[in-house]
Each structure stands twice: as structure tokens, then as C-alpha cells.
Write a structure and sequence with these properties.
TIM Barrel; about 40% helix; 8-stranded parallel β-sheet
Length: about 375
């Protein structure tokens, strides 16, 4: 397996229900839907007109595992910056367009790989025709994105508010505008800030079309709360086979979304990126600075994309046995620690002060060995 394959390995779980079958859409070099891996994406929060700052954030996102990046295109100045950003971007880019169809045309001309647009709010039939023609000619897919706060007033009145049914009907109305023009290179999202509403909307939508679905809980909040809300909402959907591309929406630096997204996919047995760190919650048997040790290991492994398991355990009685599947690990006890590989003890370290440096040295040796093994 190559280093790139290690970095984005797909794993399976026999207990997970089958995945929903969808058609395939390609955003640049990333295939979405079908039996392709669930893609991870995010959105920059820089001023798109600032090419340098936007590219810096795109590169940081890509380094953290982001596979598709969306950019807000608010005006013509932002649209004019797209060509330079696209030229130097390491990942496919999607232009987020609202209300002005001319910005969509400029984004396609700039070479962007996708559009996030709702054709019902960019003007009349002539404007929709123009965008569809441009997207078809360039092979650019579109994402129809409906949030609970953007449902048409007519549908709000009909369904009694931004219900899951209203969001789904709104999305499908936009989709029909594209289908009428023989455009089917589409993916759809129906997000709400309510987790139950988000789940209900996607489950309803999943049964009414075969387009690939981009899933997320919108306005999920700050990293602590937003991680919980996103993990619950996306976890339920992905476990039941719904979702072809994901975004974990957190207030703040979007790079923080990557750790959550990848750990979520790993937890569900869908994909893995980088090492998994197994550490016990501590208990009365813990006699070492376990939290400090675990944090140091996590920080050292942050840039590593290879897939393996590291265990940091607080008890020499049960540690190696509980983490016997780990590729490498340490279990601490009173004044000593056991370093093990695959459940087998390979070294005993004496002195609590020696646990961290000795295990880090063993970890470096382990990483060097894996580097030699991986072409």
C-alpha cells in the first residue's frame, strides 16, 4: 500500500447497514457517491478577495485531510480572484454563489470544480439557462443546498414552518429546474441547526432521489458543542448509509473541522486517516501522568497520515490486554511502564520520569520502521 493509500484507507465494519446507492458526481478529481469513499470537505472563512490568505487556508485544510474546499463568492472582485486561487490550490474548489448568476459564470470561467447554487434564486429562466449551459460545457457539477433558514416563504406557509418536508420539497424544486434543462450532475444538501430535523430531512430526501448527498448540521456551534451536535447528526446518518460527502461545521478555524470529520468516519468504520490513539479514561489504579503522556503522543503524531493504532494505558494489570490490537503502546504502573507491540511486552521502563522519553524514543523507532516498509 502506498503512503497516499495509507493516508486515506477505507475500512469496513460488518455491523453497519448497507450504504444508500446513489449516482456518481465528480468534483475535480474527487468522485462522490456510488461506492466511492465518503469525501471530507470544508469552507474557507477568509476574504476570498485576499488570494494569499485564502490559499494559505486552503493549503492548511488540505494538509489536515480536506479533500474539497468551498469558497464564498460575494461579489465580482471575489470572482476575479478565483482563477489565481484555483491555479495554486492543491484540492478541488467549489464556488458558493447566491442571487447573482454572473458570479457563477465567472467561477466556471475561472476553472472552479463545482458550484454551490440554488437555481431558483439566481434570476429567471434565462439566467438559469446560462448557468446550466456553462456548467455543462465545463463539466462542472452543482450542489443544491437548502438550509432551514433559506426555505421559500411559499413552502413555509404550506408546511407550517421550516420542517424537514419543507426543506426537502424546496431542494427538489431547485433540482427540477436543472432536470428540465437536462442537467443531472448534481448533489444535494438539506441542513438544519436542529439535529433531529437534519436527520429527518436527509432520511426523507434519501428516499426520494438517487443524487449523492452532502451532509452536515449547519450552525452547529463552537468546537465543543459543535463537535457533539455534528457527531450525533452525521453519525446517525452515516451509520444508516446516508451521506456521500461531509462537512463538520464549527465556529472558528475550519482546520479544526478535519480532526472531527476523520475521527467520525474512523469511529463508524468508513475511513481512516492517521494513527488512532487509544487511551484509558484513568481510574484509581492510575499511578502515572497519563493525560500528559497521551497529549504528548497525540501532538507528536498530529502530522502523521499513516494508519495504525497507538495505545496509552494507565494500568499495567489490564493495559496490554485491553489494547492488544494496538500496533504499539505503553501501560504505566507504580514507578514503571510496559512498552508493548500487538499485546506483547517488548520493554520494561523503570522510573516514572523515564516513561515519556523512553516511549517517545520507541515510537520514533516504530515510525522509522514503518517508513521503510511503506513504498
Amino acid at each position: 500500500m502506498t503512503a497516499a493509500e495509507h493516508a486515506h484507507a477505507t475500512v469496513t465494519d460488518p455491523f453497519r447497514p448497507p450504504r444508500r446507492v446513489s449516482r456518481v458526481v465528480r468534483v475535480g478529481g474527487v468522485a462522490i457517491g456510488g461506492d466511492h469513499p465518503v469525501a471530507v470537505q470544508s469552507m474557507t472563512n477568509t476574504d476570498t478577495r485576499d488570494v494569499g490568505a485564502t490559499l494559505a487556508q486552503i493549503r492548511a485544510l488540505a494538509e489536515a485531510g480536506c479533500e474539497i474546499v468551498r469558497l464564498a463568492v460575494l461579489d465580482e472582485e471575489a470572482a476575479r480572484a478565483l482563477a489565481a486561487i484555483r491555479r495554486d490550490s492543491p484540492v478541488p474548489l467549489v464556488a458558493d454563489i447566491h442571487f447573482d448568476h454572473r458570479l457563477a459564470l465567472m467561477a466556471v470561467d475561472a476553472g472552479l470544480d463545482g458550484l454551490r447554487i440554488n437555481p431558483g434564486n439566481i434570476g429567471g429562466a434565462a439566467q438559469v439557462d446560462a448557468v446550466v449551459r456553462a456548467a455543462k460545457a465545463a463539466g462542472v457539477p452543482m450542489r443544491i443546498g437548502v438550509n432551514s433558514g433559506s426555505v421559500d416563504k411559499r413552502l413555509l406557509a404550506r408546511f407550517g414552518g421550516p420542517t424537514p418536508e419543507a426543506m426537502v420539497e424546496s431542494a427538489l424544486e431547485h433540482v427540477r429546474l436543472l432536470e428540465e434543462r437536462d442537467f443531472f450532475d448534481t448533489k444535494i444538501s438539506v441542513k438544519a441547526s436542529s439535529v433531529p430535523a437534519t436527520i429527518a430531512a436527509y432520511r426523507l430526501l434519501a428516499g426520494r432521489c438517487d443524487y449523492p448527498l452532502h451532509i452536515g448540521v449547519t450552525e452547529a456551534g463552537t468546537p465543543g458543542r459543535g463537535t457533539v451536535k455534528s457527531s450525533v447528526g452525521l453519525g446517525v446518518l452515516l451509520y444508516h448509509g446516508i451521506g456521500d460527502t461531509v462537512r463538520v461545521s464549527l465556529t472558528g478555524d475550519p482546520v479544526a473541522e478535519m480532526d472531527v470529520a476523520w475521527e467520525l468516519l474512523r469511529a463508524l468504520g468508513l475511513r481512516a486517516r492517521g494513527p488512532e490513539i487509544v487511551s484509558c479514561p484513568t481510574c484509581g489504579r492510575t499511578e502515572i501522568a497519563l493525560a500528559e503522556l497521551a497529549r504528548a503522543v497525540e501532538e507528536r503524531l498530529r502530522p502523521v497520515t499513516d494508519v495504525f493504532t497507538v495505545a496509552v494505558m494507565g494500568c499495567v494489570v489490564n493495559g496490554p490486554g485491553e489494547a492488544k490490537g494496538a500496533d504499539i503502546g505503553i501501560a504505566g504502573g507504580r514507578g514503571k511502564g510496559l512498552i508493548f507491540r500487538r499485546g506483547e511486552v517488548v520493554r520494561t521502563v523503570r522510573g516514572a520520569q523515564n516513561l515519556l522519553p523512553e516511549f517517545m524514543a520507541e515510537l520514533e523507532k516504530f515510525l522509522e520502521e514503518r517508513k521503510k516498509e511503506t513504498p
